[in-house]
Amino acid sequence: MAKQGWDVVRALAASLPGAEEGTSYRTPAFKVRGKLFARLHPEGDLVVRVDPDDRDLLCEGEPERFYTTDHYRGYDMMLVRLDAISRKRLAEVLEASWRRVAGKRRIAERDG
Fold this sequence. Notes:
- By secondary structure, the chain is of the alpha+beta class.
- It is 38% helix and 24% strand.
- The protein has a six-stranded antiparallel beta sheet, with helices on one face.
- Helix 1 packs across helix 3.
């Protein structure tokens, strides 16, 4: 499986309505409506928003791709191993994260 880097994240995230590239905690990030939906963790993995119930299932079912740390347990976030995820799966995860903060208008725009 090819390693996905920030350039791939950028291309996928930028295709989502209202996505804006910026920084968060001095690392590259994407936001919509001023709300974070993806950021590069200093150690190279990707932080994304996720429903906490889904996070638990993903982290237990696909630990080679998804995990969390004590720091993120109280938040609706998880980490994605960019060196262990396909581009297609990464696109799905990014869109799900974006949908958590995008708002009805942006989601309707995406869904057509």
